[in-house]
Structure formats: C-alpha cells, structure tokens
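User: Before I run my own analysis I want an independent prediction to cross-check against. Here's the chain; please return only the structure tokens and, at the end, one sentence I can use as a sanity check.
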Amino acid sequence: MINDKYQAVLFDFDGVLCHDRFYDATFLADRPEVCAWVNTNVFTDKELTRQWMRGQLSSLEINEFVADGIGMDLNELSVKFDDSIRAMRLDHRLKELAGSLAERGIKVGIVTDNMDVFSSITVPHHGLNDIFDVVVNSSEYGMLKQDENGKLFDVALSALDVGIENALHIDDSPRTVELFRQNGGHGFLYKDFDELAKFLGYEIQ
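Assistant: Structure tokens:
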C-alpha cells in the first residue's frame, strides 16, 4: 500500500520523470557532431542555459545560435529540434506511480527548471495536465527552483492548496531536496525507481 502520509507529491522532470536530451533523437544517430556542438556550446554554458530556463532566451534564439554555429538551415534545425522534444520518453513507471497517488486522493504536481518548449510541446504531447494537478515550469515564471528561496514550490503548493509541511518533493538535485526540507517540506533524493517505490510503499507493477 502506498504511504499516504503526504497530501501532495511534487516531481522534478529532468532526471526523474525523463532522462532523454534535446536534439538527441533527431541528430545523435546520423549527425552526432551536431549533438557534440550543442553540448559544448549550449549545455555546458550554465549561464546560457539558466537564461533559457528563466525565459530570458527563447528556443528560437537558441536554435538561431546553433544553426549559425553548425552551418545549418534554421527552419530545418527547428523542425528537427521540435521532433526531438516530442521523441523524449517519460518513465512510464513514474507516470503510473503518479496515477496511483492521485487515485488515493494525493495531489500530484511537477515543478521543473525547464525551457519554453516544455510548456508548448512536452506538456500537451504527453498529456501531463491530465496526469498532474499542477505543472510549474521555471521559464514561465522567470526564476529557477533555487531562486527566491524556492518560490516556485510556493506557486505549486498554493495551486494545490497544500502546506509544505504536508508535501513531498522528489528531485535528483541534492541542493533542491535540501532547500525543500529547509522550508519545512519532505524531500526524496531520486536515484532510481525501485528505491523510490520502496520509500513510498508502492508495489511495482
């Protein structure tokens, strides 16, 4: 039986619900040099990615930068980029777990440091609004989870009408888990599904 001590469970997206990467599905097999360029010039640039996740840069602006860097037509790149977002796979076991929590009356949500395409493509493509009661994406609020002492969690919990002391956050970032705990919530550092299932008392299907 699932541990129902929590009134709400908040999931991180990248590193928990999903482990796939932008661009990989449409470039990794045929043009791995594109993925290598993006990883070197975009994703290792922490300030650039933070600006993207805070909504200060758009995916179009990022793709203009990438297209110029690799010498590729912007329209072709943009189509392949969008296709790569749709191809990103969610962990079906965690989706089923979220559904099981909801069936027990526990509210479930996503709080993620993510880009504009998460809201415009990922959420509708995977029907995340049908699974989760609230989805909070950093790029829509101009801040990351660590900003303003975790204000994004306040946004999610306010929408759920649940106090942080009755909420659990599942994240693969030790800093974020610790911040949630310091603010009075319960945190679980995600490493693998089996460990989380055991922690929640969830019977693996």
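Sanity check: Residues 8-19+89-200 form a domain with the Rossmann fold fold (CATH 3.40.50.1000).
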